[in-house]
């Protein structure tokens, strides 16, 4: 078999449209579909306050805090922006209850999907798990059917249409 510059093995893959394409063979270990999400870090990150400003050499003697590289007179402007951002985040932050509801949705959807894809995995990704979600954030999910790549133009659309028909049939 041919090898690329990084010495990964290449193999030919035939897609539904008959097109052959070479791609690196990827060896990765995926978590089991029934595996629980990773535990949340000890101490909720949302409980922490805004990061402490770093004293600059210009204002270190006075004890004032300022954004690194900013002139001392800009301190009030950046402190106001930082406070406004923090207040906006705190007012709209993702609640634990909302996260639990999203995880329940994932579980119910995964149970339905296993009817047509018995070995599939469904994972919540994005802001819901990073802690940057808000109370109006969507629930991004990743559906894994196999370790092989999916042709986004043809196979992905066929799979999503199949899922849509299943959900329409079940009324959920």
Task: Describe what you observe in this structure.
This protein is α+β, with helices and mostly antiparallel strands and 172 residues long. Among the domains are: 53-92, no CATH class; 94-172, 2-Layer Sandwich (Beta Polymerase, domain 2). Helix content is 37%, strand content 12%. It contains five helices and four strands. The chain has helices spanning 57-60, 75-92, 96-116, 127-130, 155-170; strands at residues 10-14, 20-24, 121-125, 140-144. A two-stranded antiparallel ribbon has the order 1-2. Strands 3-4 form a two-stranded antiparallel sheet. The longest helix is centred in the middle third of the chain and has 21 residues, at 96-116. The two termini are 47 Å apart. The relative contact order is 0.12. Residues 1-30 and 43-47 have low confidence and may be disordered. Residues 82-169 form the Poly(A) RNA polymerase mitochondrial-like central palm domain. Residues 1-72 are annotated as: Disordered.
